[in-house]
Fold:
Amino acid sequence: MKSALVALAATALALGGCGPPRTYDRPERSLDDPPQYGGELNVGTVYVTLSALSWDPADWTWKSNHDTGLVREQLFAADLSQAVSRGGSYPFVADAYIPPEVMRGELAESWEWEDPLTLVVKLRKGVRFQPNEGVVGPREIDAGDIVATYDYINASPKKIGTYFDFMEGVEARDDRTVIYRFKTYNAEWAYRLGYGYYTGAIPKEAIGVDQRDWRNLTGTGPYRLDRYIQGHTQSFRRNDDYWDTEMVAGEPRKLPFTDRVTYRIIKDYSTVITYLRSGKLDIVEQIPWTFVEHLKSVSPELQWSRWLAPQGTYIALRTDRPPLDDARVRRALNIAVNQQEMTELLDGGDSELMAFPQHPAFGANFQPLEEMPESVKELFGYDPEKARALLQEAGLKDGFDITVQVCSCSPQHMDMLPLIESYWSKIGVRMTIEPMEYAAFLSAMTTKTHKAGYLMNTGHVSPTTTLRKNFMTGQTWNPSMYSDADLDRRLDAFLTTRDEEERIREARAMTVEILDQAPYVWLPTQYYYTAWWPWVRNYGGELRAGAVRPGPIYARIWIDHELKRELGFE
Structure:
């Protein structure tokens, strides 16, 4: 295990290691410098190793907004003018959470509650679909498109079963007015209807067309997809008719700034780092700690941000099967893992022992480990003797066998499991590791055919969603198959509660109870780093402007070509 980590560090040190580091005198450049148009932005995204999963919103893939979010727009998006890098207070790195105070209308010009169960959304004027032969001509988006999009994804056999169960229906009052009729209030309405994973607007004409073909992708966004090579490149060219602007130096500037945005799909992180150092990538959004110090020494020009991963890491334990249906067994598996040693060995100490299911970015909803009851704190300690005693108490004095599935696409997880295997072997638990290619790995969970153990990351999303999707009976993203009728009842009531302070109190209480039941082996949450060259302007490490959606961020970036030439990269 340690040899794999040493090899990774050695690889990082070997990358481009020729000669002393360059010195760099950063020129004084103001945020109010005029933008430059043209050029290409090359990005190693947070998902640099993964190709697109599907272009069809009816497939309900979690990654759809990442792959289509430069083309398809949503009712709401992040207000990037309030980013920390622009003098605001919000970093915009959360995977799918936009606090109400930093949410803006995108396709929506305005919205209001007509009555407690009727939401009225007015669409912007002048927002036009990109023409795509055989799909749609150049026309303005209307309320019928929003209704058609909702109906299309709601009718999908792949949808999350309870996702829209709070809705009575959606209708067009006129060309620019969309009416959302609720059966019951839902605290996640803005996310589920307006900026979530499954709300990118499509033209009604597209519904009869093969949407799995990337050539048929169309929307109202700042770019259009014109080149896609599976496992290699996803490239977008500028939409000259795009509607939005960015305020720079007090003036509205037409978006987007670059002619092209290209996602590079690269399986091996050594190559990712080489591409960054050589300027073939302008931004790499997710860099493990192993590479950081070397990069800072050999490429001092790079700009950096550090962020706590907005995904929980855990081994889901199938609570619907013996012996994992016994909380004593699940607790034993937790306290047999030396989490503090794990964070030192795997993350260089650059991680948090507990940052899931709530995330520190969720403010008062998050209760830190030191404030938790002793029974929860125990799960994050290391006590193999007590773990053995719990197994014996559960009738497993000789231990048991368990298969744990893992995605081969994650080197971090592939390194993590042998270490956990060694911890569990000390209490008589014999692990079989089953690596899987990503599509098969994801399919196993969504079809509920996964094995007793399932190592994964999953996004927190929001203070409400993180509890609902991970622990409510029957939810797609509940790989532990955790089911508790009382918790389900409380979650239903929780989601219909309008009072935020009451929701916070209940979120904290339910989180403690879920942690205590240990449906997962809770694992550390890692810090990551984003690096970009200083010629990347109007950017400060923002990652998402909606559910895993970076599109609005990239549309606002421009390339400082003069500086790029000065640094010898153009």
Summary: The chain has two domains: 2-302+533-566, 311-526. The first helix runs from residue 2 to 14.
